[in-house]
Specification:
single chain, 279 residues, MetI-like fold, 12 helices, 73% helix, globular
Length: 279
């Protein structure tokens, strides 16, 4: 093997041990019984009301968090990239986005519970200072919408990081040509900019969907078993409870791999189309 490939050896080993090998183990386990015999029953058992409901809630949370993340993140990225905001704001925003997009799991759940939970700082402050009881208005952090809002903390920064280079790729000549032909700002965005950015936007939406659908630690730490979503149901099956079935858990994980794999494949395909347009 040429020496130049030795630098890739640690990455290849890491990928095999912590990505390919566990995935293969899950796929094989999804089609086996506890005795090691081949079966399709685990896949068929996914078509039960509780599991269908868990997948549906997970898809709902992922779609909504990805949608709001795309809308808010696009607006923020456009403001610092193409808007009239001071240019010095871009570097701090991109630095914060790089950190926040990876801030998840137990620390993120604790931060939101301590801030917006039933005894959170903002919850108590609103009640004491203004007499506003947010729980009386239906607010509950340990719910579907609470999980969506929590996910937005890393969905919005991820959107900013991905869409900012695409916005930078919009050439000034296109806007000037549109203005010379009499197009307004709205017409430029509707007829020129957004059609060019559409593959990037749709691809980023698919990536954010996969990012939220595969989030496990944040959901478990925030809601525990109170919310029926696929990652929590998967955790309950694999951890070995009395009613748990590890092989059914493998089938659940296999279904999640298929869904996130499709979303990532869509993102890669649309990203390639977008790069061709921007060139």
């Amino acid at each position: 093997m040429p020496l130049k490939w030795l630098g890739m050896a640690p990455f290849a080993l890491f990928t095999f041990l912590f990505l390919l090998l566990p995935t293969l183990y899950i796929v094989v386990g999804a089609f086996r019984t506890p005795l090691g015999e081949f079966t399709f029953q685990n896949i068929l058992d996914l078509n039960t009301p509780s599991i269908r409901s868990a997948y549906w809630v997970s898809i709902k949370v992922s779609v909504l968090s990805a949608l709001f993340g795309c809308l808010i993140g696009f607006g923020m990225a456009a403001a610092v990239t193409l808007g009239s905001l001071p240019k010095w704001l871009r570097n701090p925003l991109m630095t914060f986005s790089g950190v926040a997009s990876n801030f998840a799991g137990v620390p993120l759940a604790f931060a939101f519970i301590a801030t917006l939970g039933p005894a959170g700082l903002i919850t108590i402050w609103l009640r004491k200072e203004f007499g506003i009881n947010v729980r009386a208005y239906g607010w509950n952090l340990l719910s579907t919408w609470g999980l969506i809002i929590t996910y937005l903390f890393f969905q919005i920064p991820l959107m900013i990081l991905i869409i900012a280079p695409a916005l930078d790729g919009l050439k000034r000549e296109w806007r000037e040509a549109a203005a010379m032909l009499g197009a307004t700002g709205g017409q430029y965005w509707r007829m020129v900019a957004l059609p060019i950015l559409f593959p990037s936007l749709l691809g980023t939406f698919a990536l954010l969907f996969a990012n939220a659908f595969g989030a496990v630690a944040t959901a478990i730490a925030l809601t525990g078993p109170s919310l029926n979503i696929a990652p929590i149901l998967l955790y309950a099956q694999i951890r070995g409870d009395v009613l748990g079935s590890p092989n059914l858990g493998y089938a659940l994980a296999f279904g999640m791999i298929v869904i996130t794999g499709i979303a990532n494949a869509v993102y890669i395909w649309l990203r390639a189309r977008s790069e061709r347009w921007l060139k």
